[in-house]
TrEMBL record:
Domain N-acetyltransferase: 12-174
Keyword hit for Transferase: yes
Record-linked Gene3D superfamilies: 3.40.630.30
Keyword annotations from UniProtKB, A to Z: Acyltransferase, Transferase
Pfam family, one: Acetyltransf_1
Example of a GO MF term: acyltransferase activity, transferring groups other than amino-acyl groups
Protein name as annotated: N-acetyltransferase domain-containing protein
Domain of life, source organism: Bacteria
Length: 182
């Protein structure tokens, strides 16, 4: 099973691209910050995307591509199996963050290295575009958090308040794009 990775242009991003993409995630435990401390707590739910969510996602990804950001995707037998997006505008002052706005792997391909390859590509792109760190407003599911920690992420030094307001249960993370950066 060969995985093909490629940059996507604005005109390649449509609802049809996601026809066989399976977002489904059964969440049982979440990592949350409460009273200044990180805890693991039961919070069972099923995360999936509605048609409205797909419409919003397509709009966001098209905008990212159109404004000079990265939309990088993984395909198996011509079918989308994962994607990552990084916004083009630096923020955070001396932290020089670029926003990793999305990273998702289809349920049928999780645990096969697709997410790792996408994340590494995002780091390389961010480094080439002047960032010191990627900023990630990350899903709080313990499985998602385990992936981010494996990738070298830690709690963000500076929180992006718009992300906190939009997704208050997300974990605000950062990841150095160069090993020698502080």
């Amino acid at each position: 099973m060969e995985i093909i990775y490629k940059n996507l242009q604005e005109n390649e991003i449509s609802r049809e691209l996601f026809r066989h993409f399976v977002r489904h995630q059964t969440v049982v435990k979440c990592r949350r910050k409460e009273n200044g401390k990180w805890i693991i707590k039961d919070d069972p739910f099923i995360d999936d995307w509605s048609e409205a969510d797909y419409k919003f996602l397509v709009s966001c990804l098209r905008n990212t591509a159109a404004t000079g950001g990265l939309v990088y995707a993984a395909f198996c037998e011509g079918v989308l199996k994962g994607f990552v997006s990084v916004e083009p505008k630096l923020f955070g002052g001396n932290h020089r963050y670029l926003d990793l706005s999305s990273i998702h792997v289809s349920e049928d391909m999780r645990g096969k290295g697709v997410g790792t390859a996408l994340f590494r590509a995002a780091k390389e792109w961010a480094k080439a575009h002047g960032a010191k760190k990627l900023y990630i407003s990350a899903h709080s599911a313990v499985e998602s958090q385990a992936f981010y920690h494996k990738m070298g992420c830690a709690e963000a030094a500076v929180y992006n308040q718009s992300h906190v307001e939009t997704e208050p249960y997300d974990c605000q993370l950062e990841c150095k794009v160069c090993e020698d950066d502080s």
